[in-house]
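CATEGORY: protein folding

GOAL: derive structure tokens
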Amino acid sequence: MHIDFPSGSSADGADVTWAFARTLLAEGLTGPAGIGDVHLWPCGPAHTVVELHSPHGMAMIRFDTSSLRRFLHRSYAVVALGGEDLEPALDDGLTSLLGGV
């Protein structure tokens, strides 16, 4: 899954996208989850906090937990849990990084 931030919300004026696994989101709905740059945790019975860290700063976003649960359930209907195919994205990412080398 990903969270997109428009250019007006970043320090350098660029669009920013954060991507992380749906399993991390699912874990963060019921307890503290995440290591590294992305952390999630329940904030009372109705909210979930997503904390994002980068070299440029940190953002904390509070979401309605029931909305996140609905999102997850709808996403499982499209792509079953564990059914994510990363190969195309990996190939595209390597091509982009290596410039066709």
